[in-house]
């Protein structure tokens, strides 16, 4: 990571950081830095709910364990928690999604980043590349993606 942030953490990074895979460290390291206040991290509550889903549906965690992990993360007081889902941000996100042919969640995260003054979204994919005014930083290398896919059985 090139700066102290602010960085927006998307759902995939939050989930991977908690999943305990052979390649979780590249996601865990910046999240740990946000928790300790070493970087300015923005985490939408929607990403935490989504991470619970990913942990329980794809990484094999029980709902109880995924819930415990996400509640523990929510105790981090140095993270900037984005706790809103205002209509104008959602509508703008859908406009962006339609115009750029990206997923609705990606449009929403991009609009949250814009509204919060975030330049960089930490992510697992390059779907944010066409979005102006934000930079996507993919936390895994292609080799690490291959390791993750093998770990997940894909």
Describe this structure in words.
This protein is α/β, with parallel strands linked by helices. Helices cover 54% and strands 12% of the residues. It has 7 helices and 5 strands. It has helices at residues 11-19, 25-36, 45-57, 63-74, 87-100, 104-115, 142-152, and strands at residues 7-9, 41-44, 80-82, 120-123, 135-138. It has a 5-stranded parallel β-sheet, sandwiched between helices. Helix 1 packs across helix 2 (25-36) and helix 1 (11-19) crosses helix 3. The longest helix is centred in the middle third of the chain and has 14 residues, at 87-100. The chain is globular, with a radius of gyration of 15 Å. The relative contact order is 0.19.
Q: Helix/strand-derived class?
A: alpha/beta
Report low-confidence residues grouped into runs of 5 or more: none
- Going across the biggest sheet, name each strand in turn: 3-2-1-4-5
Strand coverage percent: 5-15%
What's the Cα radius of gyration?
15 Å
**Average of per-residue pLDDT values:** 95
The total count of helices amounts to 7
Helix content: 40-55%
Largest sheet, described in full?
5 strands, parallel
Work out the number of β strands: 5
Give the oligomer, counting copies of the same chain as homo and different chains as hetero: single chain
Care to give the gist of this entry?
The protein is an alpha/beta fold.
